Input
Amino acid sequence: MTRSSKKGLYVDPRVMKKIEGKKSSETGVIKTWSRACVIAPEMVGFIFGVHNGKTHIEVSVNEDMVGHRLGEFSPTKKFIKHGGKMQKELEMKKKEGEIASAQAAKSTTETKK
Output
C-alpha cells in the first residue's frame, strides 16, 4: 500500500539536515541508515552511504533518481549463481574459447605487420 498523497513524500529530516547549506562538491560521503527516505531534488549531486545491513554502499544521486527511495539503490541480498558443477564446466569452456579467439586475433594482427 502506498503512502497517502495528502501526507506527501517521506524525506527524513536528519538526512535533509546533513545536506542543508552544503555543496555537493565539498562534502564527502554522507552516511545514512534511512533506506525509506525519498530522494528529493535538493539531494542531486550528493553521494550517500546507504546501509544495507552490513556495510554502507555509496550511491551517487542524479536527476533520474528523484522520487525513488535510497534503499532501492543499495541491495541487501547477494545473488549466488545457480547451476553448481555443470554451470562451472560450461563457464570454463566459454572462457577457454574466449582466450583462444583472442590469441588467434592477436596472431593474425602480428602476421599482417
About this structure: The first helix runs from residue 13 to 19. The helical segments are 13-19, 84-112. The beta strands are 29-32, 47-51, 56-60.
